[in-house]
Amino acid sequence: MARPILLAVDDDVNVLEAVVQDLRRQYGATYRVMRAASGQAALDTLAQLKARQEPVALICSDQRMPGLTGVEFLERSREFYPDARRVLLTAYADTEAAIQAINSARIHYYLNKPWDPPEEKLYPVLSDLLEDWHAGYQPPFEGLRVIGHRWSLKDHAVRSFLSSNHVPYRWMDVAAGEDGSKLLAELNLDPGRLPVVLFPDGSALVDPEPDALAARVGLSIQATQDFYDMIVVGAGPAGLAAAVYGASEGLRTLVIEPQAPGGQAGSSSKIENYLGFPAGVTGADLGRRAHIQATRFGAEFVTQRATGLRIDGQYRFVQLADGREVSSHVVLLAVGVHYRKLVIPGAGRLTGRGIYYGAALVEAVSCKDEEVYVVGGANSAGQAALHFARYARKVTMLVRGPGLAATMSKYLIDEIARTSNIVLEAFTQVVEVFGEERLEALQLKGPSGERRVPAISLFVFIGAAPGTEWLPPEIVRDENGFLLAGPDLKAEGKQPEGWQEPREPFLLESSVPGVFVAGDVRHGSIKRVASAVGEGSIAVQFAHQYLAGF
Ligand SMILES: Cc1cc2nc3c(=O)[nH]c(=O)nc-3n(C[C@H](O)[C@H](O)[C@H](O)COP(=O)(O)OP(=O)(O)OC[C@H]3O[C@@H](n4cnc5c(N)ncnc54)[C@H](O)[C@@H]3O)c2cc1C
Q1: What is the pTM (predicted TM-score) of this model?
Q2: For ligand 1, is residue 499 a contact (CB within 6 Å)?
Q3: Do 87 and 109 contact (CB within 8 A), yes or no?
Q4: Which of 39, 186, 205, 365 is paired with 75 by a 20 to 30 Å CA distance?
Q5: pLDDT digit string (tens) for 465-476?
């Protein structure tokens, strides 16, 4: 691949030279460092690079320049390279403008000048940004190809699985062009059995089961040991925090998770209110970072779904989807929630064929220049609407209530108001969906009665349900399936049946000793990334106390 480019922009020749030298010294081996002496010159350079399809990873611009200011230039640079990391160089006097620019120009970072020594003040920040850019960058294609059909449920599942596990692939929709069909014919593969996953070595998996695909793309599906100190079920923010703390404090920790680590946060295009990320962080980045961190401390991850929990004396056995079992003294249930389904005529049949739950970010590119409908008025719906607005011609948000004020954070409401291709329809519900092979129309009920509108994609965010149906009855839950823990077990008047410990359950302990609960799946939890992270780490402290009794 051509070396990605780092572009430095400053009208002061001496400062520009200093930036270029610092960048070359640290990154010259892997990146090409380019320069421009004004915002306009830099825009011209970006236009030429874009025409040659050259990758730009980072743009570093001074704020005070004649003509375009740094903020104005960085904002316009997004037209050419929306994914490049944008850094503003400022004097202390411009700090306020820089913070504003985090919103207006979506800059990723601002650095106060001077940045000496660069080893402390420049490189750690830039290296972090470049790592992020690399994680999202799709180089010219050399890897996996998926041949399928946009409106097939199985195709959607395969593509979601690959992208949620950060496995790059190129998707070939047989309905959208002839390349996919031609390739199938060349390889003598049956076009009636899709999706097909083609590997660079020429081998293929036809309509693969998740396990087979996971194993083939190198994900670990089998635990290396039979017994662990702690098994964490679910690698959302709660499970990941527990894995980081547990493993760093010496617990042999196994994490069971069928998707890429990150949980619901992983489907979030941007989390803007999590501590320490002033420019926001995508859920996928947060999950990736925590996964690396936990692995570095020795936590082990398997790509599997837990399907059962068996209690035998002091041992807890977790059953996995492939029929195997792993055991431990402590289990942490951090399985979070999944989206509630629309219960209206047609919705079941068209799920995955135009109706999607959660942001289904993988579908965003397919929606280019189309109209997209988003149902729901909470933060997750707002984030999705903003994400789809980058691709779709128009995004219509359907909200049952009067508006977004009561259910959505203000920063999202403001950004939606600033986004011209998002339209809000208040007091409006979807009451039926139509289509044979795929979604074709919606029946909407609004203030002026019912109407039918043509529709291709509907993304649904109408609340969440806990994923606890697989747990045994000994694990007490509330009427909605959320797990009771600690004081809540007593508050419900249910001193756990069969509880034989001479002590009360610990704060996050379930009705079974040694089985803990953290995050969104817990009855009464605050549904936020930070609270899930907090609970995951607190649960580890109680796990230690529990294990001390052995
Ligand atoms: C689109 C969206 C945007 C959001 N934005 C924000 C935001 O900006 N700020 C904020 O603070 N919060 C936000 N939230 C809420 C936040 O993401 C959640 O509160 C948080 O992710 C809860 O973490 P958790 O670990 O408890 O559960 P989850 O994130 O739900 O993770 C649970 C994990 O368990 C796995 N799992 C489930 N069942 C099993 C099983 N049987 N076996 C193995 N694994 C299993 C799931 O695959 C999942 O990865 C958002 C949520 C969504 C959906």
Answers
A1: 0.74
A2: no
A3: yes
A4: 365
A5: 999 999 999 999
